[in-house]
Specification:
With 462 residues, the protein is mostly helical. Helices cover 84% and strands 0% of the residues. The radius of gyration is 21 Å and the shape is globular.
Length: 462
């Protein structure tokens, strides 16, 4: 591989004066980071898509169990996404201030924190799997399937969190190509392992969890080795320090709160879906898998915004940071609209790919069309999140997250209390999530972006 990161991805943009940048130049730099990031982010939800497609062949109960188990695991991993986001912002700011050793030291600290958290959380999932399944409303066969998947996949959590941290380092160093290569390879290996273990060896849903865990650990070893080698070449210490771990945890704490509010909304949504019946819950898993694919695709622009805005503010160029905000928002809304058209046109094939059960397909169809209609707004929200994360504005994002959760709570509880069962109930549920919840996020982050509180220049933000 050619070096640890590609400095030319900043290239021309870094040399433009604060008053001389153009939209076309910014577009080229955004796309140089976003296109590889798109590939990597699309590869990640392919893990869920592959698991869903393979497990769906086992019947409605395993697919419903996977819906609950994957909600738990994505919640655990999602809560730790600060390992990627905070690291991206810190590394990008220090790189913008021409402090490469400091940038890599931040990344090493994040890697050690990720491994420690992963071990602890993996053990907690193994021990608490039955309780977690019951908490989400699973009973009998669905609960048994959910527990089997949770316990089989939990050993992969240290690997998954290490992948987050290492990916954050590389993004901050303006390298989104390496995470693309690793994610694409991992998605292919995961598909092969799951098919072999579930359909070939007939291990059942546990085979899917084992295949995913093994793949995640291999990806972590690959990415972690690259970051450690890069740090050693620049004389950066790769052993953990108490101060470094504390600093990484402190920088990520606001983003942890922000992410906790997002995951709480997702868990609440799944809990309501579970109360609407097994077929509706299985249909929700189908819609959730497709939503995850489109959402991560939109997040590619947010990743580019994180890295470029962080670099610009680290170099003290506030004008450039605002120009990046405007252009990435334009791209976000446009990409969201394009994805809405694709999902709206492809829904017959999408629902058939995940289940042969007619009731599951009917439930998924109505909700999928509702979700598709909200994708342009999702593009706006995701990009604004990326800009503010890159700016190190985690404290605001934490507060805004609490506000949006409070707004969403009565809407989702109203669906639980009054929505009918079947396809109509799931459609109302997704109207609450993709409509009410996203709209409140759009308003809060949009208000913040209009002001100047997020544009703090310098290599670090206190």
């Amino acid at each position: 591989m050619h070096g640890l990161w590609n400095r030319t991805t900043w290239g021309e943009l870094a040399r433009i004066s604060p008053s001389g940048h153009t939209s076309s130049t910014i577009d080229r730099q955004v796309l140089a980071l976003a296109v590889p990031a798109l590939g990597a982010l699309v590869a990640e939800p392919l893990f869920v898509l592959v698991d869903s497609a393979i497990v769906g062949r086992l019947g409605p109960a395993p697919l419903a169990g996977l819906a609950l188990a994957s909600t738990v695991l994505t919640t655990v991993v999602g809560l730790c996404v600060f390992l990627a986001y905070a690291t991206t912002a810190a590394v990008a700011r220090r790189l913008g201030a021409d402090d490469e050793p400091g940038a890599l030291r931040s990344g090493i600290d994040g890697l050690w924190l990720a491994v420690g958290l992963g071990i602890a959380l993996g053990a907690a999932v193994v021990l608490g799997a039955p309780w977690l399944a019951a908490l989400l409303g699973a009973h009998d066969e669905v609960a048994r399937q959910a527990v089997a998947y949770l316990r089989a996949s939990a050993p992969g959590l240290p690997g998954m969190l290490a992948v987050l941290a290492a990916t954050g380092v590389l993004r901050g160093l303006q390298d989104t190509r390496t995470p693309l290569l690793v994610a694409a390879t991992g998605a292919a290996v995961n598909a092969g392992l799951n098919a072999l273990l579930v359909l070939g060896a007939r291990i059942g849903i546990a085979g899917s969890g084992l295949g995913t865990a093994a793949t995640q650990l291999a990806m972590a070893a690959w990415l972690g080795t690259l970051v450690v080698r890069g740090a050693r070449r620049r004389g950066v210490r790769v052993t953990p320090t108490a101060g470094g771990l504390r600093g990484s945890a402190r920088a990520g704490a606001p983003l942890l709160v922000r992410t906790a509010t997002l995951r709480a909304a997702i868990v609440l949504t799944t809990w309501v879906a579970a109360g609407l019946g097994t077929a509706v819950l299985a249909g929700h898993q189908v819609v959730n898998a497709v939503w995850g694919l489109t959402a991560f695709a939109l997040d590619a622009l947010a990743i580019a915004a994180q890295a470029l805005v962080g670099h610009a503010l680290g170099a003290g160029d506030v004008v450039l940071a605002r120009a990046l905000l405007r252009r990435t928002l334009t791209w976000g809304v446009a990409l969201g609209a394009a994805l809405a058209v694709v999902v709206g046109a492809a829904w017959p094939w999408l629902v058939r790919a995940f289940s042969a059960d007619d009731e599951v397909r009917r439930a998924a169809t109505a909700a999928l069309l509702v979700a598709a209609a909200c994708l342009p707004m999702a593009g706006w929200v995701f990009v604004l999140d990326g800009v503010l994360i890159g700016a190190g504005d985690g404290v605001f994002l934490a507060r805004a997250g609490l506000v949006t959760l409070v707004v969403y709570l009565p809407a989702v509880l109203a669906v639980r209390a009054w929505a009918p069962g079947g396809p109509a109930g799931l459609a109302w549920l997704w109207a609450a999530f993709a409509g009410v919840f996203l709209a409140s996020r759009a308003l809060t982050t949009g208000w913040r972006a209009r002001g100047s509180g997020w544009t703090v220049p310098g290599s670090d933000r206190r």
